[in-house]
Specification:
Elements lengths: L1 H6 L1 H56 L3 H11 L13 H4 L4
Length: 99
């Protein structure tokens, strides 16, 4: 009985229809998996870059700690403030003196 079903044209047609629906789905899933793996790889690389940048900046911070002239210079250029300080930002035009 099972041999008749397997050998029948009806079974073959059903099998082909199932494959027609499954193969594209497997392909899409595989492509999506590759895209997600690429995104994960890119994000992992970006994390490593940011960690390197943080390390570099931490080293710079150690270099500048205690150096009041460097701190004053950097705070002036980058308009930085310490926690608890208040900062006033004025347009450059107000600071220029007309002759």
């Amino acid at each position: 009985m099972i041999k008749k079903i397997i050998n029948s044209k009806f079974f073959l047609i059903i099998l082909i229809v199932i494959l027609i629906f499954l193969v594209p789905n497997f392909y899409r899933n595989n492509q999506e998996k590759k895209n997600l793996e690429n995104q994960l790889s890119n994000l992992s690389n970006r994390i490593l870059e940011i960690e390197d940048e943080n390390k570099r900046l931490a080293d710079k911070l150690i270099e500048f700690e205690g150096n009041e002239d460097a701190e004053k210079f950097l705070r002036t250029i980058y308009v930085l403030k310490k926690p608890g300080e208040k900062a006033i930002v004025m347009p450059r035009e107000l600071l220029e003196i007309d002759d």
